Amino acid sequence: MFHERRINLKTPAELKIMREAGRINATVLAKVKELLQPGVTTADLNAAAEEALKSHGCVSPFKGYGHPPFPTSITVSINDEMVHGIPNSRRKLKEGDIVSIDCGTVHQGYVADSAFSAGVGRVSQEAQTLLEVTEAALYAGIAKMRKGNRAGDVSAAIQKYVESHGLHVTREYTGHGVGKDMHEGPQVPNYGMAGTGLVLKAGMTIALEPMVLVGTHETRVLPDKWTVVSADGSLTAHFEHTVAVTEGEPQILTVL
Length: 256
Ligand code: MG
Ligand code: MG
Description:
- It is a single chain.
- This protein has a single domain, classed as Creatinase/methionine aminopeptidase superfamily (Creatine Amidinohydrolase), CATH 3.90.230.10.
- Helix content is 27%, strand content 23%.
- It is built from four helices and 14 strands.
- A five-stranded antiparallel sheet has the order 7-6-8-13-14.
- A hairpin with a 6-residue loop joins strand 13 and strand 14 (251-252).
- Helix 1 crosses helix 2 (42-55) and helix 3 (125-143) runs antiparallel to helix 4 (151-163).
- The structure holds magnesium ion (2 copies).
């Protein structure tokens, strides 16, 4: 079982700050997305994100996180790399790659966390389908993030959508509560059973993040101790939004 961290319900005032953190994070991701073309290095993408964060007076919670400390402000994960790829000045994007960019923003002490995946130039039909299914799975999960539903309803919606397209969800990496800390409770896996798990309450803020693989659900970590790749080398994709559970509709915080 996962180690559960504390769940912190947010007040309307806290949600307002997190919404602004999310807006800034979306601005940064949009800037990086504009740069996705063959020949650009993954370090160039990180530099653009750092500049955009700085222009808002913000920093990323990724830099310095964990052991060994993560060295950059965004993660860039290409093709079989699922998450936590480390930007590098020798790594250039190529036509046909699919790239996942994950970014966090700390604004007035609160974290927003969001990611998208996109193709570089023209991509294969397999890659295009993977991108579309992974993004739609995120929205299938978000639709279940309603007060009174259970965490398992969210997990099951993601898993069911992905598996109905013959693709696989990761077992080792999960969505998570987010707030003053990048990782708070609850953990929300990308697989599970409807009607199980904790009951969602208004004020919960959760970074929901389906990570989808073409071949099998198995992953391994590269010797850099960060980059997570599919075990079989098949393509992967990842989309993430920070979402608030409210008295009514789920509110996506990480949008413009
Ligand atoms: Mg993230
Ligand atoms: Mg996250």
